[in-house]
Specification:
The protein is of the alpha+beta class and about 200 residues long. About 50% of the residues lie in helices and about 20% in strands. The protein has two domains: about 80 residues, no CATH class; about 60 residues, OB fold (Dihydrolipoamide Acetyltransferase, E2P) (Beta Barrel), CATH 2.40.50.140. This is NfeD family protein.
Length: about 200
């Protein structure tokens, strides 16, 4: 529509692609996570080639040629992004949602209380720092923690792994006590049978 109105001519299209590519690259730098990197690189490269070919060839690179260049550079950027693993995690599971953080471990970077704090998760993605709340009590800086409730967003509930007793530990202790009682009862029964025989 802009091309038809005469406000934007075909000679300015490469400049528009460069501007859009730079804008998406800046957006990627502000909010990393590989959301804009492929299309930003594709638009930027196609725009730069269009700007370079215009004066060299003495012709205006048309929208169709620029579209093909965007697709070509997009495919190359995607291949490079996947092959060179720019954001890490190749061959590893990636965090798909907050529920996948349950059970992840990390370290406290800022003292964690029931109302606030910060942790760095071992496999927390490109930005592994999360606001954190403790289940109960205070967890000092440098302590190892585990996510017990991912909550949502970037706030997780954590529990200390250093000397803490959780539900699983309590259940294992109850099971050990029950088995010990059963062994004692079986030993007492055997002792009574031997006493009766004598």
């Amino acid at each position: 529509m802009l091309l038809q109105s005469g406000l934007l001519g075909p000679e300015t299209l490469p400049l528009l692609l460069v501007a859009a590519g730079l804008g998406l690259s800046i957006a990627e730098a502000i909010a990393p996570g590989a959301h804009f990197v492929v299309i930003g690189v594709a638009l930027l490269a196609a725009g730069l080639v269009g700007l370079a070919l215009g004066p060299i060839a003495g012709l205006v690179v048309g929208p169709f040629v620029l579209g093909i260049l965007v697709l070509l550079f997009g495919a190359l950027a995607f291949y490079g992004y996947r092959e060179f693993d720019l954001y890490g995690g190749k061959g590893q599971d990636q965090t798909s949602d907050s529920r996948s953080l349950r059970g992840e471990t990390g370290r406290v970077t800022e003292r964690v209380t029931p109302t606030g704090g910060e942790v760095k998760l071992d496999s927390g993605g490109f930005n592994p720092f999360y606001s954190a709340r403790s289940v109960d009590g205070e967890i000092p800086e440098g302590s190892e923690v585990m996510v017990v409730d991912p909550g949502g967003g970037n706030v997780v509930t954590v529990e200390s792994l250093e000397g803490g007793v959780d539900d699983i530990d309590r259940e294992l202790a109850r099971e050990r006590e029950r088995r010990a009682r059963e062994r004692d009862d079986a030993t007492d029964d055997d002792t009574e049978l031997e006493t009766e025989r004598e």
